[in-house]
Amino acid sequence: MLLVDAGNSLIGELGNVSEPAERTRGETSVEVLNRLGYDAVALGPRDLLLGREDLLKRLDEASGFSFLSANLYDRSTSKLVAQPYVIKEIGGHRVALIGITGPVPEENAEFYALPALDAARKYVLEAQSRAGVVVLLSNAGLEANKVIAGQVQGIDLIVSGGQGVLPEPLEMPSGALIVHADQSSSGHAGRVLGDLLVTFDLSGRRVAHSWNAVSLGPSVPDDREIAAWVAEALKRP
Questions:
Q1: Which residue, 3, 5, 166, 205, could crosslink 41 as a Cys pair with Cβ 3.0–4.6 Å?
Q2: CA torsion angle for 185, 189, 191, 196 (degrees, to 10)?
Q3: pLDDT value, residue 125
Q4: Domain that holds residue 9
Q5: What is this structure's pTM?
Q6: What percent of the chain has pLDDT over 90?
Q7: Residue 25: pLDDT band by 50, 70, 90 thresholds?
Q8: Domain total for the chain?
Q9: Quick one: three-class SS letters along the chain?
Q10: CATH label of the domain that carries residue 113
Q11: Comparing C-alpha atoms, which of 72, 23, 83, 24 is closest to residue 45?
Q12: Tell me: the pLDDT tens digits for 205-226?
């Protein structure tokens, strides 16, 4: 199993001091991602609200998973903020997970993002030499991700984030599959878990898939350990 997120995962509403993520500048967000055993998380434009100093601290705190972005750059160094992709071995396949960051406001003084399509072209080609399956974690938005899937060959799956609603997986003529579990909004995030089962043949060709959008409502019991951690995090100053 791979547990991934398409981004905008570190901070919610700025100024909402009742949120542990706001009070700790995203520290609790990374801590719970560590505890849940994530494999990779893309960086999103909203994560940049932390500012350069706090964001780089949060990236260093990731343990066991990777923050990814193939197109987000630090203005002070002109270098990528995070690694562009990571390779995971699962089910007899080498899987490349590539992060794509959505548009960054031009007035942002600390970061800038190159076009998502250009980054996808570059790093999908590079990753194909190292992996048999290529997955994009992209918060560029559903419409942009459709363009990427249509113009960049070699993508097997796009886990889509950002703007756009996609109730069911979308199969593109290129062979890429796009899934989008949930769209965060004010007071609403993390209420739906996308459960995707994909079958690949020995050559790495996708031959079957099934999808279930799991609503994390009262019917899903709390994990006791995580619930205890949440209660503690809510009390932190």
A1: 5
A2: 100
A3: 97
A4: 4-234
A5: 0.94
A6: 76
A7: very high
A8: 1
A9: CCCEECCCCCCCCCCCCCCHHHHCCCHHHHHHHHHHCCCEEECCHHHHHHCHHHHHHHHHHCCCCEEECCCEEECCCCEECCECEEEEEECCEEEEEEEECCCCCCCCCCEEECCHHHHHHHHHHHHHCCCCEEEEEECCCHHHHHHHHHHCCCCCEEEECCCCCCCCCEECCCCCEEECCCCCECCECCCEEEEEEEEECCCCCEEEEEEEEEECCCCCCCCHHHHHHHHHHHCCC
A10: 3.60.21.10
A11: 72
A12: 899 999 998 988 888 899 999 9
Cβ neighbour number for residue 102 with a 10 Å cutoff: 25
Residue 39: band (very low, low, confident or very high) from pLDDT cuts 50, 70, 90: very high
Q: Which of 39, 36, 91, 98 lies closest to 72 in space, CA to CA?
A: 98
Place of tokens 């399956």: 133
Bridge partners (DSSP) of residue 67 are 41
CA 157 to each of CA 33, 38, 50: distance values in angstroms, whole numbers, following the listed order: 22, 18, 29
pLDDT band at 31 (very low <50, low <70, confident <90, very high): very high
Task: Give me 114's structure tokens.
Answer: 């190159």
Asked whether the predicted pLDDT for residue 202 surpasses 70, the reply is yes
Helical axes 142-151 vs 116-128, angle rounded to 10°: 50
Length of the chain: 237
183 has a pLDDT exceeding 80: no
Paired tokens of 165: 């609603």
